[in-house]
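User: Show me sequence and structure for the first protein, then do the same for the second.

Assistant: Starting with the first protein.
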Amino acid sequence: MAPLSDSPAAFPPVPLTLEGSSLLHQFFRFNWTAWRACPAEHRAQIGSRAVAALKSMERNSADAPTRTGLYSQLGHKGDLIFVHFRESFEALNQAELELAQTELYDFLELRHSYVSVVELGLYESTRKTYEAASAKGFATHSPEWQAEVDASLQRGAEAMKTRLFPAVPESKYLCFYPMDRKRGEEKNWYSVPFAERQRMMHLHGLIGRRYGDVVKQIISGSIGMDDWEWGVDLFAEDPVVFKKLIYEMRFDEVSAVYALFGQFFLGIRLPVEKLGGWLEGRL
């Protein structure tokens, strides 16, 4: 059997991916009118209880990685952003339920949410994996071929474990947005040959790597989970770098020709212990 590189028709069009942490973004409007109507003593009690509850959600222990991040949101779309990283969707649902049990939740109106899972796209290694399976004489999608692919994915998952199961970065600013690849009549990412997509994604990735020392980027897949195909989280100490990175990527072929973007959400990190001050109008 010829290697896949010499047999394009046999080359599966789907790039391999690795999946890790389950993610939930929650965007809330805070009912300031109802909050101000509460007696000051009651507000203080609600705030202190919320801090205690959120601290347990934030970390399992004092030295554990951050798994829930709280942000004060800028603009008219909302007031607070919760970003939850968990090991499963069941754990995400538990985080939702725990938050809903707090008295503070009575003042929160959920305006938007997003469900996804950390995803590492393997355009660079997919072709090598498929060709290795083909070179051994395995028919595409045969049990032997699939076992070869699974072994490759297992090795990759072990090597990239820290990227697949990250902590919520401690950076001061968060930018989140969802995105799709175009599937229109004139431009359809999913009808582009694999090798061409691989070339474009390589060049696209080089831009992100140039910003690697100032921006932490976490890509999550959401096909079949939410309304867009991917969610993008950017974390940085300077929010202007979000503009510079995304603007530069707009000139890249992948974004310029094949990308569609949803709403953008910007937040400032709000340490849980400072929530009481935020509730009284101090960031």
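Switching to the second protein now.
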Amino acid sequence: MKTKYEIAKNWLPRYTGTPLKDFGEYFLLTNFNNYVTSFADKFKCNVNGIGKPMQTSTNSEGLTIINFGIGSANAATVMDLLVAVKPKGVLFLGKCGGLKHSTEIGHFILPTAAIRGDGTSNDYLPTEVPALPSFKLHKFVSEKIIARKLEYRTGVIYTTNRRVWEWDEEFKAYLKKLFTIGIDMETATLFIAGLVNAIPRGALLLVSDTPLVPEGIKTEESDNMVTKNFSDLHLQIGIEAMTEIGVKGEAIKHFKY
């Protein structure tokens, strides 16, 4: 195997337990196994990859969901491996910490960009290259949210490799200087790896905590509350957007110089 494509064709089934022919054209990516099982229950389809690094499920309409795990390294890995099936569109359904008073628990964020504090994306492109979503994909997701008469926020997400930073007052002061709306561990990596791999990409983030204040730091109890109250809606919006975009949405093109 000499090319990325050859490696990806071999490794994607190995990581997911899913043959290449069983993947759809559009994808939902997530960090949460319950999103995959809920998807499979909804469409009465199988969950593949139990016991492997990534679990998948694909419905009869050609939409695949993948739980790729947590963190920027895993985000980069799944975007590299997806070149094997050349997705027409990928939407990340992730959670993030809200960093502004206007981002309360349960709010949705469509990031306009992401700051590359992850480090992983530096292996793909120079740091000057902004981490951006595909505008037409986000435009369609926005229409699905508005059709439900729901509000959402836009703004810049800070992506970090650090999972435990909530105690660090210096880092929190730094975040406030950046005017970022939220913080996560994957969005910037997905945007940059998607750019490099010519994959149209977007992210619909659910605010799960408000970590700049001690009482807002995520706990098992608070995370269970968010999952119970908001995850079904989060998943459903993603399903609607990525199911209909191939039929009703504008063509998503990836331009090369």
